[in-house]
Amino acid sequence: MKATRRSFRLWWPLLAAGAILLVAACGPTTVAGPDMPVQDPVFVAAGEPLYATNCAECHGEDLRGTDLGPSHLSIVYEPSHHSDGAFAVAMLVGTAQHHWPYGAMEPVEGLSDEDIISIIAYVREIQRIEGFEAYPPA
Q1: 105 three-class SS
Q2: 108 vs 117: CA distance, rounded Å
Q3: For 56-105, how does the pLDDT look when each residue is reduced to its tens digit (9 = 90+)?
Q4: How many C-beta atoms lie closer than 10 Å to residue 47's C-beta?
Q5: What is the per-residue pLDDT across 12-43, written as a single tens digit (0 to 9) for each?
Q6: DSSP secondary structure letter of residue 119
Q7: What Rg, from alpha-carbon coordinates, does the chain have?
Q8: CA pair distance 29, 1, nearest whole angstrom
Q9: Which residues partner with 74 through β-bridges?
Q10: CA-to-CA distance for 138 and 109, rounded, in angstroms?
């Protein structure tokens, strides 16, 4: 069966997500809050402005959410529940509504693989520093 350009456009985000999952799987195993490993400071520094530009409108400048999206400091986003790969897939292809009443998340357009890795490093570093909030929120 001959592949078409249309089928490639449908499958490339999944292939890219697979590559990011592979990179994430090669990294350290993480646990919640202060026991999480320190993230690479180069990626964290690059991720902060990318987060501010691409994520903060919904998830908050301080990662604590807004009326458009949930807090990334919720225990729901602890690495054993939402892995780095889950964050990557959400940015690449979006995600259906789950856990929260905000509706589906659309993909974030225009991010490179390195941008996505940097945003995840920034989020994980802030989670490490701040710890996690209870779910559901009070």
Answers
A1: strand
A2: 13
A3: 999 999 999 999 999 999 999 999 899 999 999 999 999 998 888 999 99
A4: 27
A5: 565 555 555 544 444 433 334 668 999 999 99
A6: H
A7: 15
A8: 40
A9: 133
A10: 33
pTM: 0.76
Give which of 104, 87, 84 is closest to 95, Cα–Cα. 104
> At 127, is the secondary structure helix, strand, or coil?
helix
Domains of the chain: 5-130 (1.10.760.10)
Cβ atoms of 23 and 112 closer than 8 Å = no
Nearest CA among 64, 63, 73 for reference residue 32: 73
3 state SS of 86: helix
> What 3-state DSSP class applies to 74?
strand
Q: What is the DSSP letter of 91?
A: H
Q: Reduced to 3 states, what is the DSSP secondary structure of residue 84?
A: helix
Give the chain's length: 138
User: Helix axis angle, 84-93 relative to 113-130, nearest 10°?
Assistant: 130
SS3 annotation, 8-65:
HHHHHHHHHHHHHHHHHHCCCCCCCHHHCCCCCHHHHHHHHHHHHHHCHHHHCCCCCC
